[in-house]
């Protein structure tokens, strides 16, 4: 090897290498260039390393007490601890990272890179293999680990000297030989054990030592873990080359594994695109053997079985049968023969933290005797198999929910192997159950960091924040020229939209939608922006919320409060007297909202209530004298009347263009004032026309903004796509409608809406409700996308009947809206830096992240609602007037029926047949279980018993009486179950039809309730002795209404704050 100094910062190293080629020895020279100006990324550096370029790459903390360099063994075995948000200032050595990629694998290597790329962690990678002072040539006679240790120590010494000893450098390792060799070599460079480091520097970091012990045990016993089953029933995965070759040729198929929650041990599905038709279809993966160690959500490669082995899916009801899949495929009952396949490879593991618990005490003792320190835990999510963990703390886990992670799943192991992370709390405790929901859906609830809060403007009671004079000249000032007001649910704090309507001199009208200018405060790549991007959305649970933005922004500076100057981004339309659009204007504005109204108050004004009746609900009027107050009230009333007229016209035109219309049943929980989480009542919420008016204005704004940004940025605009439902997913709807003599046309969204409007049984209005429920279940999910990743025809939004649609109206609660605001401002402002916009590839990747965060928020909300439903029925378990209700049959299964309970908006399974051969027979003594069987047809299920004198037949849309009970499950969430009381309804017609059936089409109101800002905004409300928390969340089209138990929910509770 030779070395050549080219200049003070560049060294060339030449190494002669001999290799054999076609039997001959060939000699060649490999050149490597080493630099002296590799960035240190430290803000205390005096050598000019912190430049704008270096800062974009990443930097170490400004106020750090030390920097820590993890040795190779720490990166391999304790990376999970390095991921903790509290531990910052980590320097990863390039040579160690490269070795991790070679020895451990790409997944582990990417996890390390994700720590470095997260600006909130303030960690960096130092390129020791490119620096002339830290490069180490791999000489013969030296082991690779020895070279790694030497490279790590040399990097630490370089940092110490480069920073002139201003900050201590700590190397952490669990190798005692390394500590003994290097701990006293250089003053200012400390080499200590990782455990010692955690004890000394992070004594208050909760449960970190427990996690350390767990990870250390895994590292020490990884080679010893064997199967308890004793047989090797799983197949080897194909090589990476074989998998990619099979995918390219079309022999294999790729997709995400979805385990059927209702039959987790036997059924899983993978959605794939068939090359022949470019249509999406499902492949059935039957049994654990064919699943071949793949876990729910893994990206897998599938090999199809011969057609002779294809079969239909299982239709047997299980104890946890529900309808709560994101896409809905698992829940659609079909006897259609499906392709069957097996997993031959896993492209990407999507393992995460899992909530789990021990089996009951007896099972635990048996397992403990067999395996010593290794025990099986049962995951909270029944789609995940049991996990074997190695721990000495099992005695502390009794009756606790814990968090575990999966580390591996070897071919000869019956279960995956994992480790203990932390304890959540007692099983059944409300806070523990909420924490379990958050962990299962990977929802961040940590406090906003100090650095993030320091970015925000300062505002106090004595010195409140004010708009800047320099901003006034950049914006259209609407404070004196326009009557601006907001209409929100009672108690709303995060007001992100306001409206204005103004009559023009020629009789035309100007409509304005004014949205909080969040981007003024949230700059790209700021800590606030990075945190908001990571969270994706504000998460609303049944009794609480977790904000995407810090409270100073969400509840104050960005909230369009009444009588307060605020920055906004506006869309304003000018219509002629015939309501034909003349022009549209986009731009930054300044507003001062004159009135902060509630929906109910606005509707009361429209319904003709007088000024005297409304003074108490519109406090802004009280500051005026009596004469002026009358004028202001009439002005507000006229504006609301004009706004309502505009909303009706917008809705009519949208429906004429093919939009669907769905109504949703909104349910409200009220909590006992003496106990915050004890559900007192469940009741329906009144639907008001003003809801639709505000919704239509928001849809109109979202459409025009989507149109604008997609025209200016045809390849990198963020839109909202809602594909039409698959024809096979509408088959059950058609069959059910045919039972009542109705024909459902599905060739377009408009024909579907018209068909549902006409499918009304005057004798039973529940029929139409059930049909709309089935239509909702068949709908696809709306998703964000980058326009450069989809073809033009895929831009269409099926539910709203619009060729362009985006989310612009709720930037306080959705990160997608922040991105759309940046796109819009870049499109309309010449001075806006368009170079900072995301490329199509980056934007599409970010859209996928936001879609995933949306789904997680929806599912977490849904499970929290179910939790409080369980609380309600637990409290009233002995009250027959509440727990006995009318159910309506809407589907059949092999061993029972599915029923919908209109009173509570819930649905689920009702068993008629048991495995022991007994059937449920209604006698004059009640329901008795006796020997028999079920005869099933497409329209009915008949209970047949030799000991009973006649056959009992259940048909679609039959009304019967059921008891709602709570089915407790120690490892999994408690759920509602239904027991048959009578094969007929015990409710009188007068009770059933006390409310008139809705005459309006229901197919787009559910769209509105899940898309538009107002219908998706949960808030807190005050009602005399009760404080209510209203929730009508919106994250994605039709998603919440996949199960009637997750309808837009208004929840009232007594808050502890």
TrEMBL record:
Its EC number is 3.1.13.1. It is found in: Cytoplasm. It catalyses: Exonucleolytic cleavage in the 3'- to 5'-direction to yield nucleoside 5'-phosphates. It comes from the Eukaryota. Keywords: Cytoplasm, Exonuclease, Exosome, Hydrolase, Magnesium, Nuclease, RNA-binding. Residues 475-830 form the RNB domain. Pfam families: OB_Dis3 (PF17849), RNB (PF00773), Rrp44_CSD1 (PF17216). SMART domains: RNB. Its main location: cytoplasm. InterPro entries: Dis3_CSD2, NA-bd_OB-fold, RNase_II/R, RNase_II/R_CS, RNR_Ribonuclease, Rrp44_CSD1. Its cofactor is Mg(2+). Belongs to the RNR ribonuclease family. This is DIS3-like exonuclease 1. The gene is LOC106464435.
């Amino acid at each position: 090897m030779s070395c050549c100094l080219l200049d003070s910062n560049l060294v060339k190293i030449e190494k002669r290498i001999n290799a054999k080629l076609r039997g001959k020895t060939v000699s060649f020279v490999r050149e490597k260039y080493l630099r002296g100006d590799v960035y240190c990324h430290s803000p205390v550096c005096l050598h000019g390393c912190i430049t704008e370029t270096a800062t974009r790459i990443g930097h170490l903390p400004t106020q750090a007490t030390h920097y820590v360099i993890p040795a190779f063994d720490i990166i391999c075995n304790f990376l999970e601890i390095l991921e903790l948000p509290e531990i910052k200032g980590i320097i990863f050595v390039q040579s160690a990272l490269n070795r991790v990629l070679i020895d451990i694998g790409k997944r582990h290597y990417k996890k390390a890179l994700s720590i470095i790329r997260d600006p909130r962690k303030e960690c960096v990678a130092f390129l020791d293999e490119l620096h002339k002072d830290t490069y180490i040539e791999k000489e013969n006679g030296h082991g690779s680990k020895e070279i790694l240790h030497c490279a790590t120590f040399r990097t630490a010494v370089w940092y110490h000297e480069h920073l002139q000893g201003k900050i201590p450098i700590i190397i952490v390792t669990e190798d005692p030989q390394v500590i003994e060799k290097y701990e006293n070599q250089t003053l200012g460079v400390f080499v200590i054990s990782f455990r010692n480091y955690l004890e000394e520097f992070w004594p208050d970091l909760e449960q970190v030592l427990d996690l350390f012990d767990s990870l250390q045990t895994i590292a020490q016993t990884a080679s010893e873990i064997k199967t308890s089953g004793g047989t090797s029933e799983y197949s080897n995965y194909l090589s990476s080359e074989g998998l990619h070759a099979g995918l390219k040729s079309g022999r294999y198929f790729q997709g995400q594994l979805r385990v059927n929650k209702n039959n987790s041990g036997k059924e899983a599905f993978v959605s794939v695109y068939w090359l022949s038709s470019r249509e999406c279809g499902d492949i059935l993966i039957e049994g654990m053997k064919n699943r071949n160690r793949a876990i729910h959500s893994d990206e897998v490669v599938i090999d199809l079985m011969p057609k002779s082995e294809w079969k239909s899916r299982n239709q047997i009801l299980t104890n946890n049968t529900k309808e709560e899949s994101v896409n809905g495929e698992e829940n659609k009952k079909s006897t259609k023969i499906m392709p069957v396949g097996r997993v031959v490879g896993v492209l990407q593991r999507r393992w995460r933290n899992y909530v789990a618990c021990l089996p009951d005490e007896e099972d635990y003792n048996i397992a403990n005797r067999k395996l010593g320190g290794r025990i099986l835990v049962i995951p909270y999510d029944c789609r995940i198999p049991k996990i074997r963990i190695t721990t000495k703390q099992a005695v502390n886990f009794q009756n606790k929910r814990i968090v575990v992670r999966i580390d591996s799943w070897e071919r000869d192991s019956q279960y995956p192997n994992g480790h203990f992370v932390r304890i959540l709390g007692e099983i059944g405790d409300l806070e523990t159950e909420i924490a379990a929901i958050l962990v299962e859906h990977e929802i961040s609830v940590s406090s906003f960091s100090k650095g993030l809060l320091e970015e925000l403007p300062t505002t106090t009671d004595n010195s409140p924040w004010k708009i800047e004079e320099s901003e006034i000249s950049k914006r259209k000032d609407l404070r004196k020229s326009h009557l601006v007001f907001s209409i929100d649910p009672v108690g709303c704090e995060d007001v992100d939209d306001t409206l204005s309507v103004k009559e023009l001199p020629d009789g035309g009208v100007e409509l304005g939608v004014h949205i909080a200018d969040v981007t003024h405060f949230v700059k790209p790549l700021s800590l606030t922006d990075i945190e908001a991007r990571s969270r994706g959305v504000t998460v609303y649970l049944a009794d609480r919320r977790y904000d995407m933005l810090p409270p100073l922004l969400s509840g104050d500076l960005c909230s369009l409060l009444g009588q307060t100057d605020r920055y906004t981004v506006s869309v304003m339309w000018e219509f002629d007297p015939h309501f034909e659009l003349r022009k549209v204007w986009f731009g930054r504005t300044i507003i001062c909202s004159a009135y902060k109204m509630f929906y109910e108050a606005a509707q009361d004004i429209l319904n003709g209530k007088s000024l005297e009746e409304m003074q108490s609900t519109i406090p802004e009027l009280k500051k005026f004298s009596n004469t002026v107050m009358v004028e202001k009230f009439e002005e507000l009333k006229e504006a609301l009347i004009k706004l309502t007229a505009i909303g009706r016209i917008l809705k009519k035109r949208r429906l004429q263009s093919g939009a669907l219309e769905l109504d949703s049943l909104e349910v409200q929980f009220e909590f006992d004032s003496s106990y915050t989480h004890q559900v007192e009542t469940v009741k329906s919420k009144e639907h008001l026309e003003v809801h639709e008016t505000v919704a239509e204005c928001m849809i109109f704004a979202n459409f025009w903004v989507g149109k604008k940004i997609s025209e200016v940025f045809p390849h990198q605009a963020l839109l909202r796509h809602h594909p039409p439902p698959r024809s096979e997913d509408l088959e059950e709807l058609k069959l059910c409608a045919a039972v009542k003599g109705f024909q459902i046309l599905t060739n377009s969204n408009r024909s579907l809406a018209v068909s549902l409007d006409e499918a009304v049984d005057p004798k039973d209005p529940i029929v139409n409700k059930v049909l709309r429920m089935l239509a909702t279940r068949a709908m696809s999910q709306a998703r964000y996308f980058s326009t450069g990743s989809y073809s033009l025809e895929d831009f269409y939004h099926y539910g709203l009947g619009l060729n362009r649609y985006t989310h612009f109206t709720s930037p306080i609660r959705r990160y997608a809206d922040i991105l759309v605001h940046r796109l819009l401002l870049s499109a309309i402002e010449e001075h806006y830096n368009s170079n900072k916009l995301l490329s199509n590839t980056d934007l599409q990747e970010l859209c996928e992240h936001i879609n995933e965060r949306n789904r997680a928020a929806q599912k977490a909300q849904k499970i929290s609602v179910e939790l409080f439903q369980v609380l309600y029925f637990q409290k009233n378990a002995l009250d027959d007037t509440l727990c006995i209700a009318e159910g309506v049959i809407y589907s059949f299964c092999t061993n029972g029926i599915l029923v919908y309970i209109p009173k509570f908006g819930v649905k689920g399974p009702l068993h008629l047949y048991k495995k022991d051969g007994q059937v449920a027979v209604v006698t004059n003594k009640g329901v008795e279980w006796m020997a028999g069987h079920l005869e099933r047809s497409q329209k009915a299920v008949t209970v047949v018993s030799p000991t009973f004198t006649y056959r009992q037949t259940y048909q679609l849309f039959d009304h019967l009486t059921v008891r709602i009970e709570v089915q407790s499950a120690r490892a999994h969430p408690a759920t509602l179950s239904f027991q048959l009381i009578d094969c007929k309804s015990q409710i009188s017609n007068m009770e059933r039809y006390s409310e008139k059936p809705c005459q309006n089409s229901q197919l787009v109101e559910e769209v509105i309730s899940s898309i538009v800002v107002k219908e998706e905004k949960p808030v807190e409300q005050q009602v005399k002795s009760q404080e209510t928390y209203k929730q009508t969340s919106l994250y994605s089209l039709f998603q919440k209404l996949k199960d009637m138990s997750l309808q837009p929910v208004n929840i009232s509770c007594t808050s502890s704050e």
